[in-house]
Structure prediction request, 374 residues.
Amino acid sequence: MIDSNYYMDLCVDSQQNYERYKKDAEENVVRTEFVEEKRYDLSPYWFERKTQQRGKVTNEDTGIYYGFDQDNKLRVTACDDLIDGYGYTSYGEDHIITRLYVNGILDSIKVFTGQQGKFERCVEYIVRHGLELEKSWYDVEEYIYEDDRLIQVHNPKYVGKELYKHLENTYLDYDENGELHQVFNGVQQLVYNNMTNQAALALRETLKAEVIRETENIFKATAEEINGEQVCFFSIYLDGDPLDNPLDPIYQPGFERVRVVQLEQNENQYFLWSAGEHPMYYQTGIKNEELRTKLHMLYVHWSLREDCYTERMKFWQEVAYSLNESDWSEYLPVTDDFVIFVDWEEVDFAQGEHLQGIPEHKQEILRAKGLILS
Prediction:
């Protein structure tokens, strides 16, 4: 697919002439930007394709910085990809090479062919385990244009590999003004959308109402499966990365018979609220594809512009709060202390982190029964 010997020769040259490439890049820098996190990448639409926010510029010396020459071309990158990793970029007539070093030892090179702004190809050749062919590996991207707009990024390395199908192609869509509108991966999953904050807020409110209605359906379906067993809670489990998990969130019922035994055994707060202590085969998720697609759209927006973890948590805690204000005995055989709460991998039950979506009047019932401590 690529001539590995050619790129290995470039890597050997990059290591042998480290001081020269470093000096050439640094001497051309006329402006430096310190940032909080990675902010620039020569790969077209890198942040949009990775669903990542650009790091903010800061006046503080964060150790992460970029150096630009008099033509505003990127020459030096410091610690934006790797700790102690410094990249030095040189420009040719039909190619650009970034050499990345860690403590003076070559980690990798990135070779862009074509003109900046309309690259034809990028090969990243990685030699962090040594300058030997058998220890090296690579990634490759090919850029496809239509009317001078990048419409597809093709990664031929993954063609035919079903497990990595999402890496084969990325598709870019533009609005009527020529602005990037949406980006989809190889399995047609949205990874970027150019949605305004106002549109996102309206979508958020609509989704909250739809999720509550969908929960009714979930409770009704669960009631048909549990054969009249009393339910003491429903947890809404949030996965660590919702962009990679289409089943997020997961609904899990907790049964009173399990909790009775736990109380008799003086179990701690973790076990009293852990959905994993209850029968797992009643787990379920949102099956409405349209609703899941809209939730994913909102998660993408938050990932690009906000703190997705915080925004998603607030959303589901508000959902839980609204759900807790309803009488669910019509749908399920619930206990008088039945609640719905948001759960996640690192939740601290002893500190009451799961109580954010539970109204105070219901917390009082739980507190009186010794089910919560805070």
Residues 197-369 form one domain. The CA atoms of residues 5 and 356 lie 58 Å apart. The two ends are 61 Å apart (CA to CA). The mean pLDDT is 93.
